[in-house]
């Protein structure tokens, strides 16, 4: 007897860019800034950042949004980047001729970028946008002490010195 599977409505779409000609570390620097942000905010960030990696990432984000509007009929206002990852690809190897008949190897790194977008209107849980962001590094052991140097206390602060 055949059983019908429950058809769940898909809430995530992705775009994959392979063999992009740049270092994975340089692309990761941009990807860390857009992870967990909304679609419109991501486009503004990518247009204003001065890195060469922004253009292929911009194209992938735009492609993922087009996939979302076509495949799951979602609105661009409800899209959030839920996952963004960069993996190392293959190295393109060439040889450059040098003096005395020698050759010098040229290695150009490539990377694979994956952008996963989620439609928060279709999701049952309604995940808050800020919860998707990666927490920044914080040093819990240092505390800044506030010293009022301008008050007219008996110590006088730095202004009493002659």
From TrEMBL:
Keyword set includes Oxidoreductase: no
Xref: PROSITE patterns: RIBOSOMAL_L22 (PS00464)
One Pfam family hit: Ribosomal_L22
Name listed for the protein in its UniProt record: Large ribosomal subunit protein uL22c
UniProt organism field: Pycnobotrya nitida
Subunit structure: Part of the 50S ribosomal subunit.
Protein family: Belongs to the universal ribosomal protein uL22 family.
InterPro entries linked: Ribosomal_uL22 (IPR001063), Ribosomal_uL22_bac/chlpt-type (IPR005727), Ribosomal_uL22_bac/org-type (IPR047867), Ribosomal_uL22_CS (IPR018260), Ribosomal_uL22_sf (IPR036394)
The keyword Zinc belongs to this UniProt entry's keyword annotation: no
SUPFAM superfamilies referenced in this protein's UniProt entry, alphabetically: Ribosomal protein L22 (SSF54843)
Gene3D superfamilies for the chain: Ribosomal protein L22/L17
Main location: plastid
GO BP annotations listed: translation
Keywords linked to the UniProt accession: Chloroplast, Plastid, Ribonucleoprotein, Ribosomal protein, RNA-binding, rRNA-binding
């Amino acid at each position: 007897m055949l059983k019908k599977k429950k058809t769940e409505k898909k809430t995530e779409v992705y775009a994959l860019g392979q063999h992009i000609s740049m270092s994975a570390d340089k692309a990761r620097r941009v990807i860390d800034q857009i992870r967990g942000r909304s679609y419109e905010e991501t486009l503004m960030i990518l247009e204003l950042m001065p890195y060469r990696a922004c253009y292929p990432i911009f194209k992938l984000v735009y492609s993922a949004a087009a996939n979302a509007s076509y495949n799951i009929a979602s609105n661009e206002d409800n899209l959030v980047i839920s996952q963004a990852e960069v993996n190392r690809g293959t190295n393109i190897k060439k040889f450059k001729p040098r003096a005395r008949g020698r050759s010098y190897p040229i290695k150009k790194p490539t990377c694979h970028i994956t952008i996963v977008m989620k439609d928060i209107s279709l999701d049952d849980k309604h995940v808050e946008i800020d919860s998707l962001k990666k927490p920044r590094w914080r040093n819990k052991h240092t505390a800044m002490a506030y010293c009022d140097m301008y008050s007219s206390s008996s110590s006088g602060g730095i202004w009493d010195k002659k």
